[in-house]
Design a protein that fits this description.
Number of strands: 8
Order of helices and strands: EHEHEHEHHEHEHEHEHH
Structural class: alpha/beta
Number of helices: 10
Strand content: 15-25%
Radius of gyration: 16 Å
Helix content: 40-55%
Shape: globular
Length: 207
C-alpha cells in the first residue's frame, strides 16, 4: 500500500458517507467523548464504507477496539502511545501511525517503529489549542531528513495550496480536518483537495 497524498480526518461516520464518493482514499476516524458501544458501531460502519469505496481506514486512539474489530491501521498520540500494547498491535499485523510535535516525541515515536510519523501543527489550526507553536514548512524538511524513508504526514492549518507546499517540503501526505468539515461546501472542497493532490507528482514511499 502507498500513502495517499490526501489524508482526510473526520469525527463521525456520516462524513464518510458524504465524502468518500469524492475520491478520498485515506481517512482517519477520530471520535471523542462517546461510549464504547457508539465508537464500535462507528468503526464497523466506517470499515464497511471504506471497503466499498476502496479507501484505507485508520482508527484514532482506540487501539483495543480496533484490534477486536479487525481493523488494520491505528493512529496514536503520544499519551495513547505510552499506554498502548505495541506487541499486541504488531502481533495482529496492524499498521501504526504516531503524532509528533518535538524532538523528544519524535525519538519516542521512532522507538515504537511506526509505519508513519505525523508532524503538526504545520500552520496555525482551529482544531484544538496546542502548547506548540506552528512548526512551519522548514520543520517538515528537518523531519524528512531525520526519519529517512518513513512516510511523513503533515497536519495543522492546511488548505489545498498549503497542502501542496507541505508535500513539496517533504511530507508524503497532507492531513485535513477543519478546512473541509467547517467549509460551507465540504463535498466541493474535498473534490478540490483530491484534484490538487492527485496532480502532485512525487515518488511515493510504500509501507
Amino acid at each position: 500500500m502507498k500513502l495517499d497524498p490526501f489524508y482526510l480526518i473526520v469525527d463521525h461516520v456520516d462524513w464518510l458517507r458524504r465524502l468518500l464518493p469524492c475520491g478520498v482514499k485515506l481517512v482517519q476516524l477520530r471520535i471523542k467523548d462517546a461510549s464504547e458501544a457508539v465508537i464500535a458501531a462507528e468503526i464497523l460502519e466506517a470499515k464497511k464504507l471504506c471497503s466499498e469505496f476502496g479507501a484505507q481506514l485508520i482508527v484514532n486512539d482506540y487501539w483495543p477496539l480496533a484490534l477486536d474489530l479487525g481493523c488494520d491501521f491505528v493512529h496514536l498520540g503520544q499519551e495513547d502511545l505510552a499506554s498502548a500494547d505495541l506487541a499486541a498491535i504488531r502481533a495482529a499485523g496492524m499498521r501504526l501511525g504516531i503524532s509528533t510535535h518535538d524532538e523528544a516525541e519524535l525519538a519516542t515515536a521512532l522507538a515504537a517503529q511506526p509505519d508513519y510519523i505525523a508532524l503538526g501543527p504545520v500552520f496555525p489550526t482551529l482544531l484544538k489549542k496546542m502548547p506548540w507553536a506552528p512548526q512551519g514548512l522548514e520543520k517538515l524538511g528537518v523531519w524528512r531528513q531525520k526519519i529517512k524513508d518513513l512516510p511523513l504526514v503533515a497536519i495543522g492549518g492546511l488548505t489545498p495550496s498549503r497542502g501542496i507546499d507541505a508535500l513539496r517540503a517533504g511530507a508524503d501526505s497532507a492531513a485535513v480536518v477543519t478546512d473541509i468539515t467547517l467549509n460551507a461546501h465540504p463535498e466541493a472542497r474535498t473534490w478540490e483537495w483530491v484534484e490538487a493532490t492527485r496532480g502532485f507528482e512525487k515518488p511515493r514511499r510504500s509501507f
